[in-house]
């Protein structure tokens, strides 16, 4: 099975919907020192809040509803995301729901570790695999790519 070598310094994508941003900020504050050892990127507003409140270096993409979720999805397909922390809001419909579903779908396709709440995010951060090299299996899509049209 093909693998991607996720190095000790991970590329972590962070995303939170508006009603979940406070929870993500509180969570990120608890893990700030560890997060700072990785490469962080985020949808626009989430990234700005992380940078302003926690002084973390974050590559800010476009705001989610304006295409930020799709930008992260594209990076997943390109193999440049090692982990996704996505505090999505289970209690409010989002105008860009198709983009959100697409992002979560691509994370499943490419076997990306995903946390959608604090408890799972805690588990991810406490994993020894987060701070060391990790060989992530990716499915062998060669026969799918070569299927007859
Ligand atoms: O809507 C989002 C993810 O679906 C988050 O976008 P912002 O970080 O720009 O608020």
Automatic annotation (TrEMBL):
Reaction catalysis annotation: dihydroxyacetone phosphate = methylglyoxal + phosphate
Any single GO BP term: methylglyoxal biosynthetic process
InterPro entries given in the database record: Methylgl_synth, Methylglyoxal_synth_AS, MGS-like_dom, MGS-like_dom_sf
Domain of life: Bacteria
Chain residues that bind substrate: 17, 21, 43-46, 63-64, 96
GO CC term (a single one): cytosol
Catalytic residues as annotated in Swiss-Prot or TrEMBL: 69 (proton donor/acceptor)
GO function terms (MF aspect): methylglyoxal synthase activity
Keywords: Lyase
Chain ranges of the MGS-like domain: 1-149
Lyase keyword on record: yes
Record EC number: 4.2.3.3
Family, similarity comment: Belongs to the methylglyoxal synthase family.
Function field: Catalyzes the formation of methylglyoxal from dihydroxyacetone phosphate.
Protein name, UniProt field: Methylglyoxal synthase
Record organism: Isoalcanivorax pacificus W11-5
């Amino acid at each position: 099975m093909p693998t991607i070598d996720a190095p000790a310094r991970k590329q972590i994508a962070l995303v939170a919907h508006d009603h979940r941003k406070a929870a993500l900020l509180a969570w990120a504050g608890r893990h700030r020192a560890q997060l700072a050892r990785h490469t962080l990127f985020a949808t626009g507003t989430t990234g700005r809040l992380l940078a302003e409140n926690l002084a973390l270096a974050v590559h800010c993409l476009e705001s989610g509803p304006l295409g930020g979720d799709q930008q992260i999805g594209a990076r997943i397909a390109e193999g440049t995301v090692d982990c996704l922390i996505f505090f999505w809001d289970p209690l409010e419909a989002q105008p860009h729901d198709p983009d959100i579903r697409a992002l979560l779908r691509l994370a499943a396709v490419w076997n990306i570790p995903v946390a959608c709440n604090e408890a799972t995010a805690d588990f991810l951060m406490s994993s020894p695999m987060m701070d060391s090299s990790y060989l992530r299996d990716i499915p062998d899509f060669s026969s799918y790519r070569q299927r007859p049209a």
